[in-house]
Amino acid sequence: MERGRSKGPQHRTVTALADALALEGDDCDQFLELAREGRLRDHWTRPTGQCDLPRPIDDFTGRTAELTWTTELVRPRGAPGAAGVGLITGSAGLGKTTFAVRAAHALRPDFPGGVLFLDLFGMSSHPMPVTESLALLLRALGVIEQEIPADVAGRASLYRSLLRQRRVLVVLDNAASEGQVRPLLPGDGVGRALVTSRRLLAGLEGVRRLSLGPLPLLEATELLTGILKGRSASDDGAAISRLVELCDGLPLALRIIGNRLVSRPGWKAAELAARLGNEQGRLEQLKAGDLKIANAFAMSYEQLTRSSRQVFRRLSLIPGRDFDATLAAVVGGVDVEDAWDVLDELVDLGLLQDSAASRYRFHDLVRLFADDRLQQEDTVAERETVTEAVTSWLLQMATGAGRWFESGHGQAASGLSSPEEADRWLRVNVDNWMGALRAAAGTGRHSAVLDCAESLDWFSDRWMHAPHWLEVFTLGADAAAALGDQARQANQLNLLAWVHLVPRDDPETALRYTAQALDLATRSGATDEMASAHHNAGGALRSLGRLSEAIASETRAAEMFKASGDIDSYSQCLGALGTCLRDAGRHTEALEQYLGLWGLLNDNRSGMRPSVVAFTRPIALARIGECLALLGHRSEAIFKLTEAISLMEQAQLPSQQARSLETLAALLAEEGRSEESRSAYARAAEVYEEVGDAEASSRCRDLA
């Protein structure tokens, strides 16, 4: 500054002055910000700046397809024309600037007029004014100071006229807004431009867009390995893989980790991975010198309004990995319309990722940043209030959705208008309502936990291979035990028996649960739960090959349900009894049993709930087809199974559909209909894969 080379003080000088003057709080913050503004002004007006392109990073990795995109976009081809402007967007830490610089260096031979680079300071509190940016670019293009027009329109016109005939590539980095960028774009000439921004800049016309995402696992591993080149070979592959996983594909995080290890040869990669494994301290570990991941996120955070910051922080309290605007409104304490506006703003700044399904999610490290801001800026009481509201809302929604399948209508509070809507909500929000269920159990809200677990009984049949049911019904059983309600505890134990019988295929454990359920049900006089215990025991005994005992248990259960007037459960026992008879080789009796069930399902006076009829009908029809096949009536069996599979698809019963497809494929092969058989096996493999049964999927794929 004394020599006149700079008008802005260095940060360390300002900090030393602040300490010497004993500045604290707002006074200190204001002092540092004023100095920062001075440095920015100095950067913009320093006469030595000629918009030189920064050096490329030697260990740049990946982004092959994206580099090809830039080449095809900006490489001049033939006559002058419009276009040739690429907008590169993405959240903090994704390496937009590094990527643009790399692309510009690769393209330099195609631009004899030069490659210019200009940082527009879009994330600062004072982005570079258009007048200043045009002046810098004009000087870099060789215009002397006296010939630079005074007004923006004149400068922009001169700038475009120069680019019209010059093959110049301009890299406009860190743009704040459309208005800041629009005057800097080339017109209908051979000049080209690459623009980077954290914002989407949706208002820019005539540009092609490239959204950078996190690096794929392989490229992320290559980047970290490249940065660590030359370190001791003692860094084991497992530790490197764990570090890559914790960085979640974010290039800045990978570079910080790599730089920390390179600068400290004595450190072990495994030790650093262990430190990063602690979520509470992960952001603090992601720093190396003046590189700090939290600072990158903070620049975007500071762009938000006060109310948007609050919503952003509180979104970190959502239990699952993604959410919609309705849940965002609940956690943010705003109406849905306002939530949409905030979510759009967060996506625009790269603080959230969105999808075509109108669902949103954090990058893992951004979530940690949001949680850190929440801990710093919201009181304990405020956090607890929001957590309670979100937990209650999610449990109410899940309980209401589940009741669509047990009683034919959901809670009015759920806002879900049909079983199909309830089914979709439960599936897409499973991580959220499961998190709420755990939270409620942890805080002793036993009644709410038990209500929710009970409501999901019939829905669990529709999604039987989901991995959550063991935990759901265990929490339900624990809640019933805490409430001292033996009958409801027996109900949850019966559901746990079902979990071990169907999704987990562990009949011995299922029998243990049925014994406990039967004991509690008998002591409490819960007849329906006694019948359920007999029904589940019948299924377990059948799986163990103890068919006589299984038939006796299912017969007893059917009698008890019929006597109590529970026709829905009675119908399930009829089907199970038919299966026991089939497995015992009594095929004619099994067919009669299933035909009796079919008649009940089609009797409008039976009293069965429509949802149970819709669930049971395709399964009963498939079993009729199987019995017909065993009795040698293949053509009729194929017809029944084909109809059943169609009904299963409509009712969204993939597990049953996959089994029936495999049975149909085998029958078609026996009939010599090879092409149809292979098609059925291929479809069965696909559906088995959808429900997570890799072994069955592979078996069918081999036969397709």
Second-tier CATH architecture of the domain at 64-211: 3-Layer(aba) Sandwich
Structural class: mainly alpha
Instruction: Based on Cα principal axes, name the global outline.
Output: elongated
Mean pLDDT over the full residue set: 89
Alpha-carbon distance between the two ends: 78 Å
* CATH superfamily heading of the domain at 64-211: P-loop containing nucleotide triphosphate hydrolases
Helix content: 55-70%
Spatial strand order of the main sheet? 2-3-4-1-5
The biggest beta sheet is recorded as: 5 strands, parallel
Poorly predicted residue ranges: 42-49, 78-82
Helical element count? 34
Number of strands: 10
CATH class group of the domain at 64-211:
Alpha Beta
Q: Quote the CATH topology of the domain at 64-211.
A: Rossmann fold
Short description:
Among the domains are: 11-43; 64-211, Rossmann fold; 217-302, Orthogonal Bundle (Helicase, Ruva Protein, domain 3), CATH 1.10.8; 304-378, Arc Repressor Mutant, subunit A (Orthogonal Bundle), CATH 1.10.10.10; 609-703, Tetratricopeptide repeat domain (Serine Threonine Protein Phosphatase 5, Tetratricopeptide repeat, Alpha Horseshoe), CATH 1.25.40.10.
